[in-house]
Amino acid sequence: MTKQRYFFLILILGTLATLGPFSIDMYLPGFQAIAKYLHTTTAQVSLSLSSFFIGISAGQLIYGPLLDRFGRKKPLYVGLVIYIVASVGCLLVHTIEALIILRFVQAIGSCAAAVASVAMVRDLFPAKDNAKVFALLMLVISASPMLAPTAGGYVTAAFGWQWVFILLAAIAALILIAVIFSLPESYKPNPDFSLKPGPIIKSFLSVIVEPQFYTYAISGAFAFSGLFAYVSGSPLVFMDVFKVSGTIYGWIFALLSIGLIGSSQISSLLLKKFQSEQVVPFAIVAEVIVALAFYAGASLGWYNMYGTIVMIFLFLCCVGLTNPNTSALSIAPFSHNAGTASSLMGALQLGIGALASFGISLFNTHSAMPMAAIMAITSIIAMLVLFIGRRNIKHHFKPDANEVMVAH
Question: NCBIfam families annotated for this entry (predicted)?
């Protein structure tokens, strides 16, 4: 494979992988404008984010079997078309209920891109290059929380929130054209692969009964769900409570993402001296301490905008340490059914994250307290699951360095 071809394939797969993150982050600065247009509240608009998370969670379980049964490109075509149609629908809505439903459909479409990009890395590149390719993809994905909300803030301010969805639909259309004409079919359809519920459920059950999987996957999902509470609650906190513009909010979001991205890279350095099993308890306990301090301060009115930014930054640093290690430990026991384990882990992360996001809308308090409360609750649950579940692990499977790198 030539260097030019190598780069081009990574570019296409990278854009596929970032479609979901862009869909989440880019419309956040427009929450106030959407609420005003639809005659509702910012908290109600955040439900459209929760429905998106639910759609991605469901899609994790749907597309894995479809990609094995029909090959990679046909399910990808269907997913991208669904995404484009739903994106156009989002810019035409006149009720919050319609937006919530269409965001769910949009997520189902975007999930095809995310799942296919991971599968096609394994198909198209030699095994020895997979870790390097995944690291490049994760670098592209890591850029989306810095670029998407900032771009979304300027687009919303200049043209209106509907143009965010026009832009997302156009990006997906360009990706679809690139996939049709430039991306090879990397996996031959397997007509013997069963899509019946029985064998699929049996495969998932064989994964979830493994103590190391359910301990680290569930504790990691709860630890990670504080991030979803932040993403869902931050537009209300910064734009409604602290009265910043959508453009400034985009820059704040980009700044805070440095904590998550930077700490995940620090995790790689820590693993040169420590095991993942040592990093995870430290990171989750630190996350609990930060979350409780944030909740106490938010409840008592200790923090202004800058104090709130500092506390969220520290919390995201803890998440960045926890997530790659719990992810790697979760899938370490599996070799033949690593794909099933990975999709189930992703569904747990996104499903619990959707609940955390939905929890923000249950509060009617004009402060950072709801976001801090969800962060504290989920962090404490993560710590309890970790320390109770580890007692059931008889043989600890070790992830290698490549697995932790992929988890980033």
Answer: efflux_Bcr_CflA (TIGR00710)
What is the number of H-type helices and E-type strands within the chain? 15, 0
Please say whether the beta carbons of 125 and 133 come within 8 A.
yes
Look at the chain and report how many structural domains it folds into. Answer: 2
Domain assignment of residue 4, yes or no: no
pLDDT (tens digit per residue) in 328-359: 788 777 666 666 677 788 788 888 888 888 88
CATH number of the domain bearing residue 153: 1.20.1250.20
How confident is the model at residue 139, as a pLDDT? 65
pLDDT tens digits for range 204-241: 787 788 888 888 889 999 998 888 888 888 888 888 88
Neighbours of 36 (CB within 10 A): 13
Convert the pLDDT of each residue in 95-120 to its tens digit.
Answer: 999 999 999 999 999 988 888 877 77
What sign for the dihedral angle of Cα 217, 222, 227, 229?
Answer: positive
For residue 84, give the amino acid letter.
Answer: I
What distance lies between CA 146 and its chain's CA centroid?
14
Question: 176 and 209 share a domain?
Answer: no
The single-letter DSSP state of residue 137 is: H
> What amino acid is encoded at 207 in this protein?
V
Q: How many CB atoms lie within 10 A of CB 81?
A: 15
List all residues 6 or more positions away from 157 whose beta carbon is below 8 Å from its beta carbon.
245, 246, 247
Instruction: Check whether residue 212 and residue 302 sit in a common domain.
Output: yes
Do 255 and 350 touch, CB atoms closer than 8 A? no
